[in-house]
Amino acid sequence: MIAAFALVAVALPIAGVGAASAAPPRRIVSGWLPYWTTGASNASFLANADLFSDISPFWHDLVKNSGTASGAAIANNSLSSGSIGSNLAVLKGKGAKILPSITDGTGAGVVAAIVKNPARRAALVGQIMTLVNGNGYDGIDLDFEKFAFSDARSTWATTRPAWVQFVADLAKALHASGKQLALAVPPMYSDTTGYWVYDFRGVAPYVDRLRIMAYDYSYGSAGPVGGPMSWVESVIKYAVSVVPASKVVLGSPTYGRDWVTATNPAGCASAQKVYDSRDMGTAIPNVPVSSWVRDPASLEMHVTYKTTTNGGACKVTRSAWMADSYTTVERAKLADRYGLAGTGNWTIGAEDASYWPAMRSLAGGVPVTPKKAQAVSAVLSKSVVRRGGKVRIRGSVAPGRGGVAVTLLRFKGGKWYAIRTTRTNAAGFYSTWAVTVSKIANYRVKAAAGGGYSRALSPIVVLRTK
C-alpha cells in the first residue's frame, strides 16, 4: 500500500506528548569568545544568553612540552579582563553549556604525532579530562587547525584514522562524566574533498557538536569572507548527509577583511586589515555605511576605495568585504532550513547591533521551512506478512533534507506510541521497520519537532498478519 503525501492533522493523542505551551526562544546561537575581547564578548553573551545553546571562551592553548607523557601541555591564555575562574562564574548558570576551546599552538605535525601514538593519545585525553573536571566545565571544544593549515596533505591519510580514534576516546571519557565534546573544523565537501583529514563521517557518532568554520573563503585576495551562499549550502548538504543535522553548527563570520588590490608605484603597500562587523561605518576613514553595497551571491557588503600612504607617495586601491547582521541572519535561516543545531559566530561581541533583534525574531518563531510543503510519506514493503515477521517502512519528508529525525508510531489502546527513531538521508528519505504483533496493526511516521516538521504526520499504513 502506497500512502499519498499529505500533512495529516493530529487526531489521536500521542503518549508522552502534552499540549503545546508558550516556550522561550529556541537556543540557536553559539560561538567563540576571544580572550583578547573578554569584556565585550561576555557582555554580548550575557545580554542575549537565552538564545545560546553553548559558548566557547578561547581560554586554552595546547603547547609542546617534553616533560609530559603526551608531549604537550594545556596552557591558559591571558584574558583581557579578569581570570578564567572569575569569568566562568559570570558565564555559568545562563542555560548555555560552557565548552572552552583548546587551540593548537604546538606547531606542524605535533598533534598528528600525538594522536597516532596510543600512549601519548591516552595521556592527552587524561589531561583534557583533568582540565574539564577540575574547572567544572560542561565539556570542551577542540580547535586543532594544524592538520589543515600546517601539516602536509601527504600526512592526512594516516592522521585521519588516528584523529577519529582520539575523538572516540575523548568522547567516551567526557560522556562518562556527563560532559560534551565539540569540534571546530574547516569544511569538507565529500568524503575525499575539502579538509577531509577531519573525517566528518568518522567522528559523527562521537561528537556532540560539529562546528564547521564556513568562513575565510576569501583570504589571500579580495572577495566574500563567508563565501557565496551557494557554497555555504554545499558545505551544509554534505555535512548533514554524514552527521545528524542536530549536531551540526554552521560557523559564520562577524568580521570583514580589507585587501590592497592595486598600488602606484607597484608594490608600495600590501597590508591586509580586519574589521569587526559592528565597525563597518567607522573602521575606514571617509567610507560611511552608505558607500558599501551588497553582493547578491554572498549577501556580504563590500566597497572599493582609494587612499594613500607614505605621505601621499603611495597611491592605494583597496577592496573591503564584510558580513553584516543581514548576512549572518540569512546564513542562520539557511542553517534552520536544514535543521542544524544553529550557527556559531566568530566572534561573539563583534556583531553589529541589529543582529540580535533579527536573531531573536528567528529564534522566537518556528523554523523557516515553508509550511505548505511540510509532509511525511510512508509506504510498507508488503501489507500482509507472517506473525512475528519484520516489515520495512520507507518514506521521505518534504521538502527533502538530511538529518531529520523521524519516529515510527504504533496505535494501541487508543493511543499512538513511539517505537523507534531514525534519520533521513541527504535527499530526505528514511527507512525503518516494524514487527507484526497482532492481526492488524496501524503505523504512521512523525517527523521530530524542530526543523520545520513539528506537526507533520504520515498517513496511516495498515499491517496485517496471515
General description of the model:
This protein is of the alpha/beta class. The protein folds into two domains: 29-254 and 325-364, Glycosidases (TIM Barrel), CATH 3.20.20; 371-465, Sandwich (Immunoglobulin-like). Helices cover 23% and strands 31% of the residues. It has ten helices and 27 strands. Strands 4-3-6-7-8-11-12-18-1-2-5 form an eleven-stranded mixed β-sheet. Strand 9 and strand 10 (193-194) form a beta hairpin. Mean pLDDT is 89; it is low at 1-22 and 368-373.
- CATH fold-type name of the largest domain: TIM Barrel
Distance between the termini: 16 Å
Order of strands side by side in the largest beta sheet?
4-3-6-7-8-11-12-18-1-2-5
The H-level CATH homologous superfamily of the largest domain, spelled out, is: Glycosidases
What's the β-strand tally? Answer: 27
Percent in helix:
10-25%
Strand portion, in percent?
25-35%
Gross CATH architecture of the largest domain: Alpha-Beta Barrel
Outline: globular
pLDDT below 50 for ≥5 consecutive residues: which ranges? 1-22, 368-373
Query: What Rg do the Cα atoms give?
Result: 25 Å
How many strands, what sense, and barrel or not for the largest sheet?
11 strands, mixed
- Domain module tally: 2
Mean pLDDT figure:
89
| Helix segment tally | 10
Structural class: alpha/beta
State the name of the first-level CATH class of the largest domain: Alpha Beta
